[in-house]
Structures are given as structure tokens and as C-alpha cells.
Design a protein that fits this description.
Layout lengths: L11 E4 L3 E5 L13 E5 L1 H12 L3 E8 L2 H12 L7 E4 L8 E5 L8 E5 L15 H4 L4 E5 H5 L2 H16 L3 E5 L9 H11 L5 E3 L2 H6 L7 H11 L5 E11 L2 E10 L4 E4 L3 E5 L6 H16 L2 H15 L11 H12 L10
Parallel strand pairs: 1-4, 1-8, 2-6, 4-5, 8-9, 9-10, 10-11
Antiparallel strand pairs: 2-3, 6-7, 11-12, 12-13, 12-14
């Protein structure tokens, strides 16, 4: 893999909306519960907070309302070890934080997500407001398709920022992260293909490759074909999740090295006990980027990504709460032959 990164304070900077998640306790339904638990989350924040907990320096570029709920989110960002130096603040009368409601599932009832994020403060984000010196301190920027889907003016601004950072030697990580509730496949395909020539590390599900991009063949063949279409790509990673029930999943991934033209698929984590699946895809991205940045191989990208995702499924909330030692222990246990310890003490 020939991915080169410039020197800078921030190993990875995320760019995206930070939201407030409201959930009924336990397995209660939204239509039933009179109590809601609040948590902070968002695709890009989930990624960079996971990376920071593994030991790298990260930050989040976003916009929050100047309010008590904005302070709650800011404090959660800091608690995760993620820098808030690139956060902008909205003190306008219409300032608001995007919300989403999450109802956990139990077979045969599936989890349900309901958004209330229209015209949030983040939609007024303009990168020109970010201090200039911060842009020069970013080694890699991570952004997702969710950010591009939220608002047309925001999208133009973000794409302009991608070009600016690319011209300064910043690497770009992009997670397609398609959400049908935010935009249609045709529009998403048009916008995403326009920025793919800027992308160094691409995260995209096998389903999205086949449906949105119309690809056929084995996953390895699709990765190789995509690599030929976009020679700027260094790594393509796709996750494979088998949903056995709302509370039992099997998870693995395939990571493709575009420079060496080879792929790696780790042994699946089987029968994961799912407590909360929200953010588990972002946890994979966090682990994969950590593996790429610290070890430089697709094998380590898959190992750390798969382990992070498996652990996140067992943790309530959007963000992964685990240290490098936690993840290393999970990987070692997963790869061990024979009996392993069932308790740390």
C-alpha cells in the first residue's frame, strides 16, 4: 500500500453533523415509553472518537448551537478524547441540534430510527469559518455520504473543502454510508462519483456496490474493477454483516489493497451478542483507519476494524468505549487456537 500522509497534529479529522440521540430505556417502544435517554453521536464523530481511544490524535469539524444541549454534546466530544478545536458555534435564533430517535429491536421486531434533523445548525457550516491554521494540521480528513446528503449548500461547501485540502496534501477517507431516507440512489451516485477521484481510502458496503453502482461479480472482482476506474484509490473496504436476529449478528470484512492488487478477509466474528448496533459500521471504519495509519497493511485494517465493530455491538450508545488494550485482547482471543480466558481479573 502506497498511501502517503503529510505531517500534522491531527491524524484524522472528521467532518460531519453531531446529533442528539433519544432512546427509550431497554426494549421499550417509542410509542410506549415516557422516558428517553440522551446520547451524543454522528457518523464522523463515531469514527474519530473510536480512533482517539485507540491512541491517535483526532478532531471533529462541525457546528453546534450555542445552548445547554450544545454544551452537553461538546462535553461528550471532549470526554471521548476528540479535539473540539474545529467546531463552530451557532448563536442565531434558529440554532438547533439535529435529533434522532432510536428504538431497539427484539426478534421479530426490528430496530427503528426516526430523524428530526432538518435545518439544523450544521447545515449552515461553512469551512471558511474554520481557522486557517487548523486546515494545515490535518493529515487525513474523514467524511461520509450522510454529510453530502443533508443540504445542497452544505454539500457544495464540503466538496469545495475536499478540493482545498487535497491541494494541500491531505489524504481523504470516505464512507459512502448510503441512507435512503436522506436522498435517492441516482442523486447519491452522481454526487459520490464526482468526488471519488479525490478519495484515498474508500469504505462502501457490498450491497451499495451492487445496487447503487451496478457492479456484478465477486466482491474481490468488484474491488479490482473499482480500483481500475479510480486509480487514485489506495484501499477499498467492504463489510459483510449477517443478521441472525436483532440480537445476534455475524460480522467480517474484505479489504482490498489497490496498489498491490490483493485482498484480505478475516475470519468472521460469529454470534455477536448485540446490545446496540448503531455506530458499529463507524467503529469498523475507526479500527480500519487505525490499522492503516499505524501498521500500513490491509490485514491490520481488517483485524482492527472487525474487532472494533464486534465490540461496539456490545456497547450502548453511538460511540465505541474501548482502549487499545481492550481491542488487542479481543483480537488475540479471536485468533487464538484452543481455550481462552473467559474473564479479565
Amino acid at each position: 500500500m502506497n498511501l502517503k500522509l503529510k505531517n500534522g497534529e491531527f491524524d484524522v479529522m472528521g467532518l460531519g453533523e453531531v446529533m442528539l440521540r433519544l432512546s427509550p430505556p431497554g426494549k421499550e417502544r417509542l410509542s410506549q415509553s415516557e422516558t428517553l435517554e440522551k446520547r451524543a453521536g454522528g457518523a464522523e464523530l463515531n469514527v474519530v472518537s473510536g480512533i482517539s481511544q485507540l491512541g491517535l490524535r483526532t478532531g471533529i469539524m462541525s457546528k453546534l448551537p450555542t445552548s445547554e444541549i450544545g454544551n452537553f454534546v461538546k462535553n461528550k466530544i471532549r470526554y471521548s478524547g476528540t479535539s473540539d478545536d474545529a467546531i463552530l458555534y451557532d448563536a442565531s435564533p434558529s440554532a438547533r441540534l439535529g435529533l434522532y430517535y432510536y428504538e431497539s429491536g427484539a426478534y421479530p421486531r426490528v430496530p427503528i430510527v426516526s430523524y428530526d434533523r432538518a435545518r439544523s445548525s450544521f447545515c449552515s457550516f461553512r469551512y471558511e469559518e474554520v481557522p486557517e491554521e487548523i486546515l494545515d494540521r490535518i493529515r487525513m480528513l474523514h467524511v461520509s455520504g450522510i454529510t453530502l446528503a443533508l443540504d445542497a449548500a452544505l454539500r457544495e461547501n464540503v466538496i469545495e473543502l475536499l478540493h482545498v485540502l487535497k491541494s494541500r496534501g491531505t489524504a481523504l477517507s470516505f464512507d459512502v454510508n448510503y441512507r435512503a431516507s436522506l436522498w435517492g440512489e441516482e442523486e447519491a451516485r452522481r454526487v459520490i462519483t464526482s468526488i471519488l477521484p479525490l478519495v484515498d481510502v474508500l469504505f462502501v458496503s457490498e450491497e451499495t456496490l451492487r445496487r447503487m453502482f451496478g457492479q456484478a461479480g465477486t466482491l474481490e472482482e468488484i474491488h479490482a474493477r473499482f480500483s481500475g476506474m479510480y486509480p487514485n484509490l489506495h484501499v477499498i473496504a467492504s463489510t459483510q454483516r449477517t443478521v441472525l436476529s436483532a440480537t445476534r449478528h455475524t460480522f467480517t470484512s474484505t479489504v482490498y489493497d489497490c496498489d498491490e492488487r490483493r485482498s484480505f478477509t478475516d475470519r468472521p466474528y460469529e454470534n455477536i451478542e448485540v446490545v446496540d448496533r448503531i455506530g458499529s459500521g463507524d467503529a469498523f471504519v475507526a479500527g480500519a483507519l487505525f490499522g492503516l495509519l499505524t501498521r500500513g497493511t490491509i490485514e491490520d485494517a481488517a483485524r482492527y476494524g472487525d474487532a472494533m465493530s464486534a465490540v461496539k455491538n456490545t456497547i450502548p450508545g453511538d460511540m465505541t468505549v474501548c482502549s487499545y488494550a481492550d481491542i488487542r485482547r479481543v483480537i488475540d482471543s479471536h485468533e487464538a487456537i484452543g481455550a481462552v480466558s473467559e474473564m479479565v481479573r
